[in-house]
Amino acid sequence: MIGTGMIGRDHIRRVTDVVTGAQVVAVTDIDVERAKEIASTIDARVLPTGHDVINDPLVDAVVVTSWGPTHAEYVLAAIAAGKPVFCEKPLATAAEDGLRIVEAEQAFGRRLVQVGFMRRYDAGYRAMKRVIDSGEIGAPLLMHCVHRNQSVPQTYHSDMAVQDTAVHEIDIIRWLLDDDIVSTQVITPRRTANRFGHLQDPQVMLFETSGGVRIDLEVFVNCQYGYDIQCETVGETGTVRLPDPADVWLRSAGQLRTGVLQDWQQRFAAAFDREFTEWVASIADGRLCGPSAWDGYATALISDATTEARHTGRVVTLARPDRPAFYAT
Amino acid sequence: MIGTGMIGRDHIRRVTDVVTGAQVVAVTDIDVERAKEIASTIDARVLPTGHDVINDPLVDAVVVTSWGPTHAEYVLAAIAAGKPVFCEKPLATAAEDGLRIVEAEQAFGRRLVQVGFMRRYDAGYRAMKRVIDSGEIGAPLLMHCVHRNQSVPQTYHSDMAVQDTAVHEIDIIRWLLDDDIVSTQVITPRRTANRFGHLQDPQVMLFETSGGVRIDLEVFVNCQYGYDIQCETVGETGTVRLPDPADVWLRSAGQLRTGVLQDWQQRFAAAFDREFTEWVASIADGRLCGPSAWDGYATALISDATTEARHTGRVVTLARPDRPAFYAT
Amino acid sequence: MIGTGMIGRDHIRRVTDVVTGAQVVAVTDIDVERAKEIASTIDARVLPTGHDVINDPLVDAVVVTSWGPTHAEYVLAAIAAGKPVFCEKPLATAAEDGLRIVEAEQAFGRRLVQVGFMRRYDAGYRAMKRVIDSGEIGAPLLMHCVHRNQSVPQTYHSDMAVQDTAVHEIDIIRWLLDDDIVSTQVITPRRTANRFGHLQDPQVMLFETSGGVRIDLEVFVNCQYGYDIQCETVGETGTVRLPDPADVWLRSAGQLRTGVLQDWQQRFAAAFDREFTEWVASIADGRLCGPSAWDGYATALISDATTEARHTGRVVTLARPDRPAFYAT
Amino acid sequence: MIGTGMIGRDHIRRVTDVVTGAQVVAVTDIDVERAKEIASTIDARVLPTGHDVINDPLVDAVVVTSWGPTHAEYVLAAIAAGKPVFCEKPLATAAEDGLRIVEAEQAFGRRLVQVGFMRRYDAGYRAMKRVIDSGEIGAPLLMHCVHRNQSVPQTYHSDMAVQDTAVHEIDIIRWLLDDDIVSTQVITPRRTANRFGHLQDPQVMLFETSGGVRIDLEVFVNCQYGYDIQCETVGETGTVRLPDPADVWLRSAGQLRTGVLQDWQQRFAAAFDREFTEWVASIADGRLCGPSAWDGYATALISDATTEARHTGRVVTLARPDRPAFYAT
């Protein structure tokens, strides 16, 4: 485990308590005390650097949850060591680093990299993909997506609405439609009063795929009422929509009501568990099949274009990247 | 219009403002001032008694909304006068009076009487009946029914849970299943604290039809949160359930919620309108087809048996009344 | 009644059978036989032209449901005659005609014109407006709207997606937000295969109000599965969404399901009835309060700009029209 | 693992693949070949009898999933060996055996027994219990419960509707209300045609708790359409209801629909996983807290009374069993 911040500690707990067939044997963090504290609870060693973790002979696979700008370096080192590596998004903060990873992995000759796009493991999105792939709603034409957070801290700035938030939507759109995004635009409504002054919130992002599907995505990270992910795909003969998470229904005081989740940990807890369970199983099988380095790279290209679209106020088009056969699904 | 109490005035407004093809020309009430007040707003005459209304040559059809114990007398008089009569429930407070009405109407030779079971005009119950009749859920085996009021006044006593409240459920069960109830039982849970001391609230009534369908009915008239009518019919291959009334959905403060109606006027407003619209049209056609005197009589027999069942704590069985061919559906 | 086509006949039936306090006394149509046929069923006279209807001394108020290009002429004539006039949309097929109507009505000095935007009478939209106006979801920031038809005939062409279909959405957006649209853009996804060749279907329209609210509207008129109107307004602290129309719920064959309506007559039947009921009552009161000539004119300006936006592929901005005090809400 | 039938194999998979901190080291089954087959896949030993498993020094805790009549013997043996034992329901097929277990465990002085009432680990029931305990709906007065299976095999007979099926409902009712059932009655509707001839299906069971709460429970094991568990608790000020399991919503062919689960494995998969995860954790903690031997015994008393109620057609009352302080919650 490289990185023991919030998401890192959550993954350590997951590997230790939830996933069978795996064990955390070594951790590192730039904050050594933090690393020691968590390591002591799980009987793991603390190593000085990420490279020490990667090259430790007891380590069969690497999880990278350190600071984003360090991801590419560790992923490349893991490839060099021939070890499977799970990297939280972003795979790389610069697209060219993503490309280097893609090239390194192909040169190695076998998939080693998985990127932490956990939504692909959510039961709702999986059911939606089955419906789309079955042809039950005909060919997709449109998607309506909503990503809402209850609130974000002051450190969250306008570019993060794409880089940190919409990136999950971009991946899931690509995966659901089995297509790439080739045009992007950002619309900026009146800002909510419930935000820090520097932040454009909400934002509406408009995407177009190479096949002509149009997607609108609302990103609203201070919606106050809860954490809410919505997605509807409109096909030629029908539509399919994510359900709201199931909770008990109350009737009281003139209302029929149910709870809305408050954070992504609740919303995607089962997806994270399944993501790691399947990742560990796929390593044992020798057949990685989750979100690939290519997905990380392609998503970064679209994120960068979307950031440019917001800064310029223009529609930004992308050449559809030419996916190597190595990454064929 | 015989009777200008709350429901009477509501029907006067309905005939005047909602229904086309009818006009209130004469009203009466034991409270003459009340009758005068309402009559003055609609340009109708006030007559001394219900019999004067019935026999007035300008009156083509009679609506009886007076005090329950007077209903049978006026309905019989209307039959004697050969005029269509709409009678709010109960048709008669004693079953033998109901039988006299049924016999008088048959002697007259043509249907004149309609009883105010407005639920048959509700869009949800009608859709449920279509589903049942279509065979889409197979033969019915069970029904689960719920009748909840926000609260009732002190004058409401335990027998009224059957005579005033469950009577609507009994009619709709008979109509939906096209069958009669032949056994009845009342179960008395712990009483809610939110009631006047004399009242058994809630009550659970258990019915069995001649065809072996079993029905459980919750009557809870001080449920606090609203007016709520639920009904599910369980058949051999599926179930059909009333929808909750449609209202906008809000997401705020950690909840997803919609409104619950607060009274029967809101819940059945459209049903009442349709009831009168169809009744007036059926008079013009000369073919009454709504809930009949027979339905009023049969329902009274079941209500009486259910009252006895609560008083004795026993299962009470009824012989299935032998419906005259005159009342064949 | 000027015009006895499908919508005209439906309004004739409505005035005759549903609305109290009004009666159809004269009709006209360019197809005289059609006019005679309907007139004979309701005991109304057939007059040669719309102007004869307007000027008939027995006619207190005029309903215009003739061919769109003739609307402005009849509305202006009704104003000249000082008679209330209900005009189906469009108020005018050219914006300058709309302006002439607005000016003529102001010159007359009292409101005479109502435009047939029936959605304002739908219970769901009314509940949504109450929620927005109450401040319960904070200031609106975004709206997500969907308009889907099961299918359209070959005569339906791409401009009609705005002029005939989206015009209702444009009106309801203006009304819900009490604001005007000042920018418009049209996005064209891949076309469904289930359409006649000339038609761009679906279309996504993007609007911005003078207050900075952004709206996305999907218009998809060959969606195959039904007639489906959706609307969600996103505010600073919560959201409000139209309910799906209530229908019974079935559980059978591995599914939980309810019906989707198939046409606008079903979806807005109650709204049409309420529209006419309130219009007739407002004439009796002498205080017209429904959608005004100004609404018809402003909506036409936005429709025209949206048509231009689709033709040019560009964002089209409008100056916010300066609403005369005469039309203050 | 004592017993390698369907549920036994499922628990072996669960301990092996899902739960961390536990490992299957020894299995037994009367069908030795079946035991060998499963043991070979998980590197466990096959022992001749359940007693060999219980007394094996490598075995820290025992899971009993053998044939029901053998449960009590193995549970008593585990207590004698001082080892935690998880026993699938029933704890004992005769109530007096349940009592012997309860006495033996008390004599041992510490809880060792947990019974497999997995519903207590279902997220929906847990949320319902939180709502009830919070006082949010006031004191409970009524419960409406439904248990439906798609179909059952010919070996399923009428008593199993209580002993195998309703037993889970009985436990969850006791747990939700923190009360015991003191009266029971069975109502037998017309039988569905979709069953083997010997079976009474559906059945309606009526329970009363010592606190006066009344419960109706539909058990319908050949409902054809799916596996469906419903539960609504009605309190003095409101109600709480289980949600339907979340699945994507489709709009197509005139319907809005979602899937209904087909079997209990899908419905309670997460509950089973949590049950074992918490059980294993509680052994490590030395503090068993799941459904106890007392719960198994009390539930058996109610099941037996309910069976008698169906056979006799009468209401059967039970003395409320006097729960030892040892089993205080």
Overview of the molecule:
The structure is a homotetramer of 329-residue chains. By secondary structure, the first copy, chain A, is an alpha/beta fold. Chain A folds into 2 domains: 6-115, Rossmann fold, CATH 3.40.50; 123-264 and 293-327, Dihydrodipicolinate Reductase, domain 2 (2-Layer Sandwich). The first copy, chain A, has 10 helices and 14 strands. The longest helix of chain A is centred in the last third of the chain and has 20 residues, at 293-312. The first copy, chain A, starts with 5 loop residues before the first helix and ends in a 12-residue tail after the last strand. The mean pLDDT of chain A is 96. Chains in contact: A-B, A-C, A-D, B-C, B-D, C-D. At the A-D interface, helix 1, helix 6, strand 11 and strand 12 of A face helix 1, helix 6, strand 11 and strand 12 of D.
Descriptive keywords:
homotetramer; 329 residues; alpha/beta; Rossmann fold; Dihydrodipicolinate Reductase, domain 2; 2 domains; seven-stranded mixed β-sheet; three-stranded parallel β-sheet; 20% strand; Gfo/Idh/MocA-like_OxRdtase_N (chains A, B, C, D); Inositol 2-dehydrogenase (chains A, B, C, D); EC 1.1.1.18 (chains A, B, C, D); Gfo-Idh-MocA_inositol_DH (chains A, B, C, D); NAD(P)-bd_dom_sf (chains A, B, C, D)
Task: Please compute the radius of gyration of chain A using only Cα atoms.
Answer: 20 Å
Secondary-structure element string of chain A: HEHEHEHEHEHEHEEEEEEEHHHE
Fold-level CATH name of the largest domain in chain A: Dihydrodipicolinate Reductase, domain 2
Query: How many extended strands of chain A?
Result: 14
The major pleated sheet of chain A works out as: 7 strands, mixed
- Overall mean pLDDT of chain A: 96
Fraction in beta strands of chain A: 15-25%
Family (chains A, B, C, D): Belongs to the Gfo/Idh/MocA family.
Domain Gfo/Idh/MocA-like oxidoreductase C-terminal (chains A, B, C, D): 129-318
Protein name (chains A, B, C, D): Inositol 2-dehydrogenase
GO molecular function, one term (chains A, B, C, D): inositol 2-dehydrogenase (NAD+) activity
